[in-house]
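A further point concerns the way the authors explain their paired sequence and structure data. Each protein is reduced to its one-letter sequence and a matching series of backbone shape codes. An entry of this sort, consisting of the sequence and the corresponding backbone structure tokens, reads as follows:
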Amino acid sequence: MEIKRLAATFGRLERKQLELAPGLNVIEAPNEAGKSTWTAFLRVMLYGLNTRDRSAGADKRRYLPWSGSAMEGSLEASTSRGDITILRRTARANSPMGAFSAVYTGTSTPVEGLASAGCGEDLLGVPQDVFERSAYIRQSGIAVEQSQALEQRITALITTGEEDVSFSAAAEQLKRQRNTRRYNKSGLIPQVEEEQAALRATLAELENLSAAALRDRQALDALRAQRAEAEDLLARHEAADQADELRKVESARLDVASARDRVKTLESGSRSLPTRSELESLQARVDALGSINEAVEDARSRLDLANHTLRQAEKAANAHLYAGLTPEEAAATPLNEEPIPVLPRWTLPAAILAGLLLGGAAAYATHNWPAAVGGGLGLLGVMLLAFSWRFRQRKKQWEEEHARLERRRAEAVEEYIPLYEAEAKARASQQAAQASWETVSASAKTNLDAILNQLRSFRPMVRNLPEACQALNQAFDLRKDLELAQRWEDEARRRWEDLRDAAPPIPSVPAIRPDVSREQLRQRLARLKVQEDAVSRSLHTTQGRVQALGDPGELEIRLRELEERQSALQREYDAIAMAMEVLALAGSTLQTRFSPALGERAAAIFTRLTGGRYHKVVLDRSMIPSAQSMDQLFPHEAELLSQGTADQLYLAVRLAICEMVLPAKNAVPIILDDALVNFDDERMAAALDYLQELSAGRQLLLFTCQKREAEYMNWAYPGRFHHIRLSR
């Protein structure tokens, strides 16, 4: 088989391709460029991806594409069936690389008989187990691990040619059969022995359990009798409680009758009593009337304020008109009259009377009536002249004063106009306040009359607001008493009905309380119940255990059967042990046949790789090699060699296995992933020389992170190998 082209979306490889050629291919790539990923991809394309592996390092997780794309790839190869192309892609998320197809390259014709599971084994001629331990060589897995498949193939090639024969598998199977019968304290024989011991213990236990069950039944009967006695006494307590409850029912019925009488009494005394809503409406109107009265008082206050303001305005106006006058002038000259100075009416009669009196007095004194008359007339004239002169003087003064007052009046009138207007406004405000007060007072009286009319329906003697408030409070109290009485009646009726409905039946036993208290009886019953439950559980457990243990007769039969089976198993165990001894002897004989052949071929390759330093290679049953140099007396295991020499020894064994077990007709490609990294330059050159010779018959893919392999090949074999450079 020859691989021509790989295309992968796998791990860090995103739609990457790798073109290969026949013979030796040196793929040079730095670390983290995908060398190991390409080798893993090639293995998966041939043998498929193990989707059942759920470990953290499973390939389905480790090589999940970094870009988040679906895992897929293709492999083009030249095989004995012709040029074919294998495709694997991911159709479902839980089955990566699960969709498989194989067609002839350049066509859509499927390759007959080539399926996903057996693809690699059909093309290479070996199962995956053999491929990974021979041609799939990695630096981390260069050592050869033992496997039954590899052993079967080596055995077939060296001995019979049958690949289904494996002495280690037969030995392992015999060991499993022997261990099945006895392995230390496990196996069928110890199990049978344990069953025998258990059956003997069970038979003894059955006898003990039967006696214990009898004791439990007797104790249970005694406890049940005591419990029945205590329950009878407790039933008498219950009967007494029932009698008490019946008396409570009768008491509740009497309470209902008393409450009904109280309601009837209150209803008869308040037939014309308004309802609560009507009383609340009256209360609201009384409250509103209080607000109206407050408005009346407020209107009265505003009226008083307006009257006071009017008086102040009038006083201010009048005071202004009198400004500048003395009190005598203000009193003698009212501003609302016109003073007219005239001669007083008593002036002439007074003068005549005075003249007559004086003349009479003179005539009487002189007894001369004419002289007396003349003197009197003269005196009268003098007096008239005197009064006339005084009148003219007063009139002149009055006219002057009147003129002065007229001037002041004219000045005062001009200043009086604003005061007059203020007086007019005050008078208008006083009139408005008067009207408001009268309106509010009328509204208050109307509301009060309406309230009184309503209240007189059940209180005829109500005459004013205080009496109305008192009557309303009495009505509320009466209504409250009636409602409380009705509520009490309803509650008493409900309580009576509840008690009546829940009333127990008439006790069937005498309602006589025992001397023992209920609590003592309950404690006694609780103790008896606990004891009875414990005994009952013990009895049930014993009975269940007896039933679980089974019938004694059947157990005896089973015991005899086990004794016979133990004898048979012991005979089988002895026969298997003898067979294992014979097989071990045969395996040792076979080991002496195939191990030298494989060691001889590995030694030839190892001698070339080490420049002739080592000449002998020995492999044990577990495929662990040992090497012996020319100057050593006996071989040394690989772990005692240097890392580079150990890798060369393992590589020699791997290549020897490839020559011996890989079918020549299939020309299985060999994949090496950094297998030469620990070789020095001299032994690397020797290894490359051998690989170049080996590439004449099969394809080799050498992945390396160094340049020295390609440089040596370009120097030693120019144009005879295929060199590929990969980048990160």
Remarks:
- The longest strand covers residues 2-10.
- The two ends are 29 Å apart (CA to CA).
- The mean pLDDT is 77.
- The chain is about 65% helix and 10% strand.
